Amino acid sequence: MEDIVALRLEETLRRYPKSRSSLIPVIQDAQSILGYLPREALLKVADYLGVPASAVYGVATFYAQFHLTPRGRHQVKVCQGTACHVRGGRSVLEAVKTELGIGPGETTADRKFTLERVACVGSCSLAPVVLVDDRIHGSMTPEKFRKLTQVSAAKERARHRVFRIRMVFKIPAADTPLFKKNAACAGKVIPETAPYSFTGLRQV
Ligand code: FES
Question: Is there an atom of ligand 1 within 6 Å of 34 CB?
């Protein structure tokens, strides 16, 4: 665990009384800081609250909301309830597993997707259903899911492109007051301490 994360966890712990009744809210907070619950964090919680590590581990493994392994940036949930099952949910799950290269409960190596198998999510009329980050995609087919992942990959690439475009800086123009004040910077690579202006969005 990085120092800064460990510090945040310690600060969070200090907000709770040292009692067993704090266990669930403390674990919830630890997970929201770390994204999941590594062994180290569970031991810290046990130590702070003065409860056995086995009790902390027992709670963390009992509730489905807690995760002991790192999660992906996107949560893919494939419904296997009755309505989805009879309308091809099983073949959708197989296609999702093949497309992502992981099984239920696993996360892709690039930490992009975590796959889960869920029971009825209350949208049986749209069966078979897949949820991606809690957004429902109904009447799912293996082909539709493949398209969905391609769109998601394209969006992610576009986000990175925008970030690169935003990092455009320039030496102040020669006729601006800012340049006149710092004429020594003209035509040079911007040194760390030199003043610079943000050009806004510009295609590079
Ligand atoms: S069974 Fe899948 S949404 Fe109800």
Answer: no
